[in-house]
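Practice problem 4.
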């Protein structure tokens, strides 16, 4: 018990110190890639792709929820004997 707390403490301290060691220096002029995309007008393409992926995930989750709801409704409307047969 005591050894696991010791190792957990060491792990936590290593993780906290690694964040400061691997941190990037702040950029004075901003993010060059984002500025370039804004200047070229391509930032809207990036926004559109991210929005399309997000909408696709939402549609998928809604359809999955509808299918699960239908299955749950079918299970609850069947008699207990039929449920026992399905589970075997």
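Answer key:
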């Amino acid at each position: 018990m005591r050894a696991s707390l010791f190792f957990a403490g060491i792990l936590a301290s290593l993780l906290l110190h690694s964040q400061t060691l691997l941190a990037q220096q702040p950029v004075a002029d901003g993010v060059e890639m984002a500025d370039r995309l804004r200047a070229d007008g391509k930032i809207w393409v990036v926004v559109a792709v991210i929005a399309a992926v997000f909408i696709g995930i939402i549609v998928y989750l809604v359809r999955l929820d509808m299918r699960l709801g239908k299955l749950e409704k079918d299970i609850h409307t069947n008699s207990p004997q039929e449920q026992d047969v399905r589970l075997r």
